[in-house]
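Researcher: Let's run the pair from yesterday's discussion. Sequence first, then tokens, for each.
Model: Starting with the first of the pair.
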Amino acid sequence: MYTSRPPAWLPKVHSTADLGKYDRAKCWSTKFRHSLGYLGFFPPRTGQEEGLSETNVKNGFTLDPQVLAETFSAHTIINGDLSSETTFYKLEALMNEIFARKADSIPLIPPATFRIPTRVTLNDSKRQSWFADLANPDVPLYKLGKSVPHGAKGHDLLDLLQSNNVAIPRAVWFLRVFGANETAGLRNKPAYNPLQYSVDWANVVTSYMKKQLADVALPSAPRPGLNIKQTFKGVLSDGDTRERWISRFVYWYDLKLLRTFYSEGLVDSRTFLVWVVQQMNTCNLAQAGFVTRLADEYLDGMLGSRPLTRPLLHACLSKLSELLNSISSSKNMKSIQFFSRSTDDEARFTEKLDMLLTWCVTPLQFGDHRPFAAVTLIRDWRMDAADRATRRHSSPPDEFLQDRLFDWLDSSSVAADPENIRSVSLLYGKLVKHELFSYASYIQRLVARGESGLLVTEDRVSRHRKFLQWIPLSNSTSSLISQRRVTLYGVRAREMPEDVNEREIRREIRRVLYDVFGGSVVHLLTATNQSLIRPYRGFSPASNINIHLDGANPSPVASTYIEKVFLKLTLCLLEYSATVDLLIAVIDTFHRYSTIWACMDEFRSIVAALDKAHQVWKARGIQSRPLLSLLLDFDGGRYLSDVSRERIEAEFTMFTLALQPATEHPDIVPDVLPEILLLAGDPDQDAPSLLANSLWIKYRKSNDWAWKVWDNTVASLRQVPIMTSDEAGRRACALRYGMLLWHVDEHLAMGLDSEVLRWFLGPGRNEVAALNLEAWDLLIVVLLYLSVHGALKTTTILQGVVYPAWQQAANVTTNQPSSAVETFLRSANEICRRLLLLDDINHDLPPVDLFELQCIRTRRQDVYGEAHFPLLASSIPVLISLQNNKSVSEKLRGDSTSVRHLISQNQDFRQGAYRNLDAIRAAFEHSLQPRDARNGILNKHLVAGLRLLLYDIDVGDDIELSEWPAVTSLLSPWKIAATMVQMQLILREMGQELLRDPTNTSAHTNLDRLILMLFNHSMTSEEAFYVGEMAKGLDNTVTGKFVNNGLRCITERVRASTSITPSNSSSAFLRAGELLLVLIHVSEPLREETTLPAVLETSSQEDLMEALLAKLNLMESLIISDSISDIDETLMQDMILFLRLLQFEMGFRGTWTAKLKESTDTIVSSLFKVLISTINPTSILCPLILDTLYYIYDEIPIDLKATPLDLFRHYPSISPTDLPLGLPVEHRKQILSLLPLSPNSCSVSNMVNSQRDTAGNLVYGTSVVNRPWEWIENLGEPTTDASEEDRDREDKERLESKYAVKNTGSLSLEDFGARLTGDGVSQTFAQDSDHKRSAKLRSFEDGLSGENIFERDWRETRVDLQANIGNSAGRQRTETEEEACSSSQFVPSKIERRMTPRGSPAPSNVSRSSARGSAGSGASVRPSPQGPVNRNSGSTMSDIIDVDSGTTVTPKQSSTQKRKVPTTAMESDDEIEIVEGPIPARISKKPKVKASVKGRPKRK
């Protein structure tokens, strides 16, 4: 039997699909014929009806057309089938059957084949070779993954990886394999925890890093008593060790291996972060930089956990300090970095700027240098910020700084204080001068915002009016002056008050320079800074250098506006000084204002001028020791060149050796030098100088010759009153002795001062005390003369003479003290007045002229310095004690009291007191005596004296406790410290009384009166606050009385609120709140004291916690019984007050007893339960309870040095999944910060275990546990083994699938419920120019496409350039060519889309599907002979018509043809007509076709 077979080249329609239940015989002649078999091959089948009719025999076997020949359209049939109800169900059933059979034929996921690389023992060479291959990136890991070496562990293993410089990904893979082998034997145990090895490995890593940090150490302080030479060599000081250490640090710390370990869970995050926090607390300063870098890298992991964040913050703050008041003349302003170099944190910069400006202008801060220091700091910041902005091409900081400075003027209460206007204007004048603040922009901004009250004629006064008037303009223009005049005085103003002041000031300056005290200087002292600066413009110091300053006092000008003019004048005087006296005056000026020069950053120019002056005076043959000392002091190793500094130091050394030659056999000076006594009768003016020269020549090799000269001089002064009775002659002798000692000082290398102080503190103490009144008059002249000429320091005279005299008089106990004591006291008071208090010129005693007065003031400055001020402060209580010593005459006691009042009211002394309040406090507290009848009055006087010192308030001796708040209500932030010192003194006095006699009724009454005032709320909250501030440093007895009584009172109120009816419990509880308000202010400063736990009664705290716990239980029951959404308002207020009380009690850092810890844990547990289960999330109680929990957790003591350290011990241990779902996001985040830090790996983030129930629904289970030590495969390197490729090919053939799936990973595909689908993603041909080939492969191949809509559009709109050119030639095919083309072999790989010619103007109704059906219905592919073919139509029967095109009205170009601009050969798309739905057949006259017809397209 003959069987019809298709040709070998003819492809199948589908390789595996089958008809299934459909009749194969029927399918060959129906619309399913294209579903199976071969393309275009339809052989006859057994049982097929032949249809041998006469017509078929004569005309051939043909099938009846499926569509009408008149229309050749299948629309009617298709629409009929689509309207049938069963069509879509049949299609659905067909597709379901196809998917079911396809799913059944797909193989299952293969079983997992992953195996952990085994460990083998290798010798050293093989192990080193293996690690070398691991470090070599050219060696793939799959070659090393069969086995890994066994041996090294812990630190040795980490050192091995670092020394071989193994890449981070490869090192992580190796350590994963290492950990997988270590944990392999534990995985089958019931209690196995996959993350436990991460904890163990975190301990290994942290111990390794701790070991490395231990190499960074600081040198230890030398221990006294051990004469052992210590050497220190740090690991970072040597080049080799530094490189080796940094290499390990970079490998571990610098965001490499440790970062990968942390992110993938290889180290336990909780263990590691706790270690970082602990290291920040225990590291030294050298290690802090590295630990800070580590903490900054992992800060994000700590910020979400409060147990980690708080101790880290405290550790960081403990490493920081910042002081401004430490600026002195030796301070290099360039070394101070007050502002941060970054301008990103605007809020921090504004805060610091506000602090700096306020510090500058407040009257009770120390130093006139403050404005200049502030300007220099701001100027340096602006320069750095401008350079940074230039490099980054960003906006300069000028506008930003202008806005911040304006905001401070506009909002600062300190700036608005009228008493500070001079300081504010001086500060901003300097800012304007250095172009840090624009005065013009300032005015423009005020005018632009419509500031009212700027005109002086307006009733309303703006705060900026004074600023505009007072801020001086150093470099002003006429337009700026005019703008200022119009803003302040109006458009019509012709003359300003500043013009009048300027004329008066000029007149006063001319008068002042000649005779200060002969005229009035009202305008000079009261004028604004703008008025003061204008007369100095154009001032030339050189032209006025010969002015005789015999009585001028430059301090008013200097104190109001020290500017460049004053500095230029001083430098000019230094250059043109011709006498030693003028040189000393200039040197004293530099000394007096040294801090201001340093803050103005003028030391460099001053040092240069001093060096030049030194060379000039040296050329004259004069070597000035004060000039050399000042030069070296101001230079400080910063400004002079190395050559100049070495030269000056060499000159100073030579000068010292010349004055005191070094010798092994020093001269012996006799105890009595008669030539000194003979000087009293020598009237020659040169006698003192000659005597000093002769003494130096004789005894210059002696070490004590100056000491003996001074001793003989004092002895001679005692003889002068006997030798002459003339008072003028005596003082002349005293001046001669003063000149002698001055010249002796010039012959000493180290000066006379130290020798005199040593004499005063030694044998001279008794000799001075024994001097009579006449001798004291002479000694006073000598001391003042030496102080004026710089031979003796004022501090030496006070320490050697004045303070001992006051102390001796205060300690006198006899009823009739000796006259020597009273003489000593009277003389000491006179010396104190002359040196510290008087500013007038006396023609009898120094100072006798302006130069000497300037010297006195310069020497006075050292008295208020930090070195000497504690001694002066301690002398004030001595004077108060002297005032109360009845053994001293009333006149002398009154004189001493007058001296004390003058000192206390002196502005310089008061500034020093506010700068050194600790010294004031220590002096007065040390003077408090155990109270008896005498000391009780003394202590009251001490309190009154302190009040006078600090506030210039003299309230007498009687002090009532009820008057304290009214008298000391100085709430300024700059005075609160002084108020605190005063109140502390009063309370200490009361505490001493209780210590002396605990049963003293009066002491208890006074202290109880204060406590009653506090707890009875007789004071306002502000008064209670600052009275509480004074409680710092109180006696333990007073502290305990305050705190314990307060806690007992509150406990009683809380208990009362739980024992009475609910209606009255609220009022009783509110009473406890009133007591709390007062006790908060009293106890707040005391809770920071370390002595507080010793005085606190533990029972008071325990009782209060028990009462609070009972109150919480009561409120919790009421809250549970109440509606969650509607809690009673009274109950809510009680809950809020309870939280305040709990926070207050937690503030006492006393002893944490077991009972107290138990109560605290119970309260915390109850509060957390109320928070997450009872309280409405939107209630105000939620944030309050959270804050309270934060407070309690912060107060629970934690030993940060404990090993091991558990920062989460007292926190809740619930899982985040147990929290209510209704919590707001903000509250949930805050609560999560209290929970234990759970490991969060990106590998398992947001992943849970799931399963399907019996109904097939997906049920979510627990979260997926990270197993970082079990998932160890490396995915970064593909396998290139040929055998592996062969196995893949065999698997595909065995499974009859195009794709093969492997299950070789350590994480099995079964864990994800994976299954095969039989689909694959088609290859993308985005880079392939043959877009037709890509389209054909996508059409004939099953699979998923990764092609997006844009790629598809690009592919379908491409045109074959050669085919397009051929079609454009217009060549028409003949019928023979078409037949030849139709009989050609059909190859699928060469199928081309038909190029549709230009459509006819008339729509065509011929369906091409009929032609296609006729052509394929018989055994041959020839066309049906039924009916003639109209060759004038737009298409032919021989064309293969696209059935899927729907209703084709007019042929159009294929989608693969490239769109082009219409030309004569190709018309635009406007001629294409689109008709929806089938067009009914109709008989119409067809139009004639144009002569120029395009060539027919090729057949597919």
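Model: Moving on to the second of the pair.
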Amino acid sequence: MAQSLTHITPDPAILDAREQQASESISTAIAALRTQILAGLFTPPFTFPRISSQSSTVAPSQPLTHLTSFSPVPTLAEWSALWSVWDLITLKMIPPSMLHVKPIDLRHKCLFYLGHIPTFCDIHLTRVLRRMGKKEEGHTEPEYFKDIFERGIDPDVDDPSSIHPHSEVPDKEEDWPTLGEVLAFRDRVRARLVRIYEEYGVPREGDPTVRDFPRALARVLWMTWEHEGFHTETILFMLIQKAGDVDGPLPPPGFATPQWETLQKLPEWSQLLPASTVTLEAGTEISLGHDDVEAEDSFDQLNSPTYEFGWDNEHPRRSVKLGEKPVRVETRPILNAEFYDFWIKERKAGGHDLPGLWVVDSEGDVKVRTLYGPVSMSVAGNWPFISAYDDLEAFAKWKGGRLPTEVELRTYLDRYEGAEESNIGFKNWHPIPPQVPDVENGVRGHNGGVWEWASTLFDEYPGFEKSVLYPGFSSDFFDGKHHVVLGGSYATISVQSPTIAFLATMAQSLIRITPDPVIVDAREQQASESTSTAIATLRTQILAGLLKPPHQRTLPTLLLYDERGLKLYDDITTHASEYYVFAAEEQILTDHAKEIVEFMGVQGDEKTVVVELGAGSLRKTSHILLALANTVTEPNSGAEAPITYYALDLERKELLRTLGVVSSTIGSNLAGRVATKGMWGTYDGGLAFIRTGGLAKGTAPEDDDNRVTQRCGEANIKDPHPIFTTTSTQTPAPRPSSSAVEGDETHSASNHHSGSYDQDASTNMSTHTPLTLQPAEEEGIRISVSRPASPSSQFVDTSGDQTPLHIVFLGSSLGNFLRPDAANFLKSLPLRPGSGDTLLLGLDHRNDPKTIEMAYNDSAGCSARFKLNGLRVAERVLQGRGDEVDRDYGEILKKDGWTCEGKWNEVEGRYESYFRSTQKQVVIVPPDIDRPQDPETHVQFEEGELYSDAEAFALFSAANLRVINRWKDNKGMYSMWLLERPPFTFPRVRSPSSTTTINAATPASTVAPSQPLADLTSFPPVPTLAEWSSLWSLWDLITLKMIPPSMLHTKPIDLRHKCLFYLGHVPTFLDIHLTRVLRRLGKKEEGHTEPEYFKDIFERGIDPSVDDPSVIHPHSEVPDKDEDWPTPGEVLAFRDRVRARLIRVYEEYGVEREGESTVRDFPRALARVLWMTWEHEAFHAETLLYMLIQKAGDTDGTLPPPGFAKPQWETLQKLPGWSQPLHTSTVTLEAESVEISLGHDDIEADDSFDQVNSPTYEFGWDNESPKRSAKLGEKAVKVETRPILNGEFYEFGIKERKAGGHDLPGLWVVDSEGNVKVRTLYGPVPLSVAANWPFAGAYDDLKAFAKWKGGRLPTEVELRTYMDRYEGSEASNIGFKNWHPVPPQLPDVENGLRGHNGGVWEWAETLFDECQGFEKSVLYPGYSSDFFDGKHQVVLGGSYATVPRLAQRRSLRNWYQHNYPYAWIGGRVVYDI
């Protein structure tokens, strides 16, 4: 039998011609192909796909913009196609001879663009990688290419010298890189870009050829691709100008050359194209632009597959309407042939140039330029005409029409353009005849391959936001000279090229979107401490607080700030409308961040560190970060930005989250300018980290497996306990708290000791601890949060690092400390005296009680949820959940058994909040050991301090801080203070207005004289060694740092000695009096400090008569010649020996006061000498300064005071108090109705060596004694509450004094342009700055002004009475609070708040003379009596350069000659009634 047929035909023979050996895989071949592409050896044919239009739906209801289907980020295949077209143009169309040629004068030479494209890409890749955390990323070598190739030119056509910022290119051809160098650089950049796609691209599910990226990176990839696409067209319209020339550009290879002769015979090329019109109805609404918000880019979020990027001028999406009248639009663009007709008839005769893309050949024929060379008008007659806006506008006008607006053109393009045959994306390499739309059948057309002009000027839309990545892309051209163009030309690349599968298969999955922010570990526990130990310690503190007696129970504030608590606090700032603190701070920072940074003195090009304590969400901080970034002139291309910001907070996860948000939102603005890092720990830990040099090292002081040092990625750190990772209880909450018990009059804040707890309770934590909590019948049961402990250690700079440090402490977080603890905490901040370090501090005011209560207990319950979370955390800690502390004992604190309540305590100035138990609770804490139940009613919770102005100034004084500037929110409810630790501070006494006896409810009538300032003096009789140290710091700053060597032998004013005299006089005076008093003590052998002859030169200075300088009291005789004076070195060595002598006197004779170890008492005769010599030096510091001010600002003149923030005059003069008129008012002093006390009883004759000075004794100069009573005059007087100001004296001077031939006031000067300026120690300032300062001048000047105003200057009694009642604000400008006057603060008489005069002494019309009972000083007999001459007037108060020990002693009387013009003495006007 025949077998069945199994094969009809044999398989065909196939030969294997593949190159790879049998062992090679397909992937190997793909890899080889990739290598070829990167090497530029493989140039596949390129085409650019397009989206499909829907010709059957030609309607406004579906514009083409709704049909976009391009992926947001170009694929690697698209890059390959783009590189192919770029290389075709630059390597195959541009001959080598053209590389150094400018085809058009308004652009660079060709070689520039070969380098510009890869350079632009490389710069932006570097920036974005650094923003992603790759700080080590550098630019592709050679790095100097970025200096040449970064940005091209686009000058003004009318004036090519007018040009936006651009790169500076070499002048000489030989100085340019070679073509080979440029191409090698190009290939390295392309390879870098491919690596980024491989590392960060996530293949899209279902379409592996497409990759998605973190959106911030995606934008960069999109932007650099489109940038190169734009430049392909730019370089082509340049090259076309030379096409057809000998050695000109070559035609595009790889594309069939057009057969012009054949094409021109086609009907659409040769026959006139008829035009028709379509009507656009008036009022039609369309959408322009799209919503692409660059500020929302982040590295945490992948781009959406449907997202559409765009340039900054495309955003935002907006609705617009057509005009009030309908318009008809031609469906055919203007053609070459019809423009030729117009040109022949109109333009040529008018002398207009030939259009830029037309050329006249040797035979006089007009031709149209193409990339194949010029073609005749018979070929190009039906092509769309291409030229300048002016040409087409003239044509349209000639035809009786106009060019369309952007809205009209966009509407037309949406409805009628976009045919599949559209001539874009190199469909052809030249224009073609347009296809007119078939409106009747809904078939779209195209315009033949050109952009189209709109009559609309190119300008920003409402809501326009300049691009951060490419800030000048659009805004550089909002100049009124540029017009909008829409559409695209035959050389405009469409947005996406075809998919090439083999490229996509090589992409790797995205391993990490962005690196974690740098976080340093500043936690306090040592390496040996485990997390369980930290939790156990916290648990002990909780139990200690719960076991306190009734009405004193507490919980650690730290419990509020677990990860959930931080987020709940963030909810308060965003959802609690009553919580004004956040909004106030944000408004201040929004409006003033630039000013704040200026006042900080940040120099962006110098290394600077900013640390924010309790940083939180960083939303407000972004304003500061951006302002800091703006100080940097050039971003640092190195590994580290010049400014480093550290956010200090308790929770590492929150730090990672918030820093990530900052990076994704404003990271591009900060790149290379401000590095943002985290600091993980408590306030204690962070400050200790700084104090021990951690910032200089960049790491935490210690490092082991349990501690984080630098980069805290998830992979290299053990997860901390889910609640906390710190043992410290010092970190206060950024929310006010309370400790006072409602309804318990015996309890107040004084019952709370910082961080302390009952010792007996703390020793019984290992026992079973049941607590019975009864529901409250009225007030409720409350648990309070314990106060943070007060740090006491002062900053010690162990690192040697001189980098400026700026600490930011916002949110009124300082209110969580009790007031004494707040001062101690501020003292502990590592701000180096005189270094330029600053503190930006937010403080809440004592506002309306209802407002405060609503703010801290909002109606939405956000505050309550935040606080109640603390109970939840306490529960977890007590259970030991999440760590090996104890087993889970179930519910300890009933979660439904608590509410949160609070109230404002007006007396204490704090908001008090507490938990209230709503039911009886037995708190059983493991281990299970029985303990008797403790039934009780109340357990307290939290408190927060708020500060009046007076309290704030007192706080800063106690913390040795100086106010640089202050900013209030618009409602005046909140302040931000910028503070520094100056090289020295002087303590001051508090005025009555800062005590609780005077507040908003106190009538003005009670503001002194019943409580004059003298009654509040708390200075010890003898200055402490600390006061001497401050005084010496001041003296040395003036004499060694403000007086240049060239000034030592000069006299700044003729009525005083040369500067060097005062350097010797002050220690000589001290030494003479120490010698005398020690000899009186029995030490007869005591001699003067060597060299002894100094006492002959330096004992006493001069104060001659102004009218006749030859009339002078007894004084030392000084050398006539400079060379006969001691050298500065000799004087300084003498000074040091005298100072050492004084310290020995303190050590030998001082008796430490009980309870005040820094204060010493002395035998009263010795005490007087120590007091007198201290005040003598303080007086001379001021004297020397008012001399030096005469030379401030001169060449080789006085230097500004170092170690103090320099005033920002331009900013200060814009402040309301500086720029707006200060309206004055008057207060009445009733005639003879008030008797006041002048002077005090200090009888020098009663001094002895047997009696130690009384701790309350007050020394004074001989003219202050004895105490005496005085009454006001027979008539009442009105006193102006505002001193005489520079501005008003200037008006008087112009009208009266100048015409009368009077001299310019001594503290004024006329500059070279004839402008009057006011002298300061920083140099003269214009009157626009100093107009509202108190005028300082001679008595005669102020007396004349007062008379001109119809008044007079006050008597000593009147002035003393006024000052007792209305002056003495905590803000008083004395004691170097500033180094210049400031606008005065007028007293608020209605509310009993004191004012100040701005920082000057004040003249009295009373002659300086002896009072009844006056006794001349034995120690210094000529101190007063030498000036009882009828020429000297009494002055009271003190200036900005008067130390508080002097300025705040009520009995002090100073004096000056009536015509002495140099001292800082002002005055006020009184009117007799």
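Researcher: Give me one sentence on the second I can quote.
Model: The chain has a mean pLDDT of 81.
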